[in-house]
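Exam revision sheet. Question 4 asks you to relate a sequence to its structure. Input first:
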Amino acid sequence: MKKTLAFLLTCAAAATLAACSGGSKPAETTAAPAETQGAETQEAKTQGEEAETVAPSGDMGEELHFKLAENQPDGNPITEGMYMFAELANKYTDGTVNIDVYPNAALCDEASSIDQVMAGTLDFSRVNTNSMSPVVDLFGAFGMPYLFSDTESKYKALDGEAGAYAFAELENYNMVGIDFYEAGSRNFYTTEKPITSVADLKGMKIRVQQTEVAISMVQALGAEATPMDYGEVFQGLQTGIVDGAENDFVSYYTSGHYEVAKNFTLDGHMAPPALVICSKKAWDQMSDAQKEGVKKASKEAAQWQRQAMQDYQEESRKECEASGCKVIDVDVKEFQDAVNSVYDKYPQYKELVDLVRAAQ
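Answer key, structure tokens:
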């Protein structure tokens, strides 16, 4: 079933790319496998410096070669979105901007990629705002509990003033924000006792990401926050080290957590987006026309990827329900009211939070 979902996503990406690119290669073939890309990049270096110089295409500028780090595997909607971005960036810059996508953390993990983009030793990376927040604190605002009321208003904010405000902060860290992408909505799931109200969380041991906001949120809901590496969660649920965890439907399904934690509560407490970042060094190498082409490419790829991720969430939910998982609706306002104190802990996020809420 998991292979079927990945196959459907890859086909969807290919079909969309064909529509956008006039019959160009499918998304999965827009970049070579990591080992092949490495050989191509090395060959490029032997021919010149980091950016090759060849005959300009009109007023577009010289030909450039870049790398993009992605930690998810092929078939994931966000990885397919990165392939689409690379393909369209090449198209909209008349073949002068070439972005090689390295999936499955072939180059480095998310945290390392941020450091490398900031230092200018990596050109592009796709990261989550939760991963960005330890480096650029402002991005922690996007992980605040129950910040986004729904997906439509979320992207109204991110594509508007709130997103521009956050991207402006990146400039202080030698990074350029390209676009926001969808990374799913996080919900609670448990092994034994289902969560139907805030009261049910009291005393429960809930695995959370190792972020201050996530820990504060779970504590405000009356549970015991238990930070744990993602790779240890399945065993933690299976052996009772934790009573539950929280994540989106795709991760819940693909990780196999649904096999040992059958109760999934639809509270949507966090929906931190992903984003593509570019090093200032790489950005400054591009002409104005190339920059516009890259932005246009990312905008199209982001629009496709956001919908593809939503579709993948629905497919994952169906698979989990078919296996016997119980999906529970709750009064979200009760949960929202319980975590109001968390916002008081982070006054530095107020201006950005207000911009997000103004768009809803």
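Marking note for examiners. Residues 10-57 have pLDDT under 50 and may be disordered.
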